[in-house]
Design brief:
About 35% of the residues lie in helices and about 20% in strands. Strands 2-1-3-4-6-5 form a six-stranded mixed beta sheet. Helix 2 runs antiparallel to helix 3.
Length: about 180
């Protein structure tokens, strides 16, 4: 996945929005991976003389322009504060979770796992796997094995009773179809 560099003006966007977004992109391109990039950007703006209200407004503009508001809130909650690493966004749909993860300095591979491309699940390959609405029954053991120690598996839109075995449950909301499990360190 590549983070799109150019953004044209759409309905409701102003030239100031585009300028704020381009400023963020230029700054982000020079940053080392790790931590929450948007929190660091807000601190950068404040260090540069912006007040906290203006800095927060610019961060919201960046999120809106990048489409990050469409990332699943559960994914954002589960990875917040974690060290970035290698992530797989499987059954990705529009790829919005992966795009958000990239902005948080994760190295993201996005693909749809199908019969033609059945297994990106090599042992110890991923620090994070995000799956959207996909039953893992046939690949459950491979998915769990492909996580590195301490790695997370996040499933949104999970089928009832489909939580994988072999992971410590971090958070599970069966009614919402949300699951996050962590591989033992």
């Amino acid at each position: 996945m590549a983070f799109v560099a150019g953004v044209g003006l759409a309905f409701g966007q102003t030239p100031a929005d585009l300028y704020a977004y381009e400023e963020y992109q230029a700054w982000a391109a020079k940053q080392k991976p790790g931590g929450d990039l948007l929190d660091r950007y807000k601190a950068h703006l404040i260090d540069g003389g912006a007040d906290s209200v203006d800095a927060e407004s610019q961060v919201r503009t960046v999120l809106r322009m990048a489409g990050a508001e469409a990332a699943h809130p559960f994914v954002m909650e589960m990875v917040r504060g974690r060290r970035a690493g290698k992530a797989l966004e499987a059954a990705r749909g529009a790829g919005r979770n992966g795009a958000w993860l990239e902005r948080q300095s994760w190295a993201v591979t996005g693909l749809d796992v199908t019969k033609a491309n059945p297994s990106p699940f090599a042992p110890g390959r991923w620090d994070l796997i995000v799956v959207k609405g996909m039953a893992l029954r046939d690949q459950e053991a491979s998915v769990v094995e492909s996580l590195r120690p301490g790695g997370l598996l996040i499933i949104t839109g999970m089928e009832r009773g489909a939580a994988p075995r072999g992971l410590r449950v971090v958070k599970f909301e069966q009614a919402e179809g949300l699951y996050c499990g962590e591989k033992a360190k």
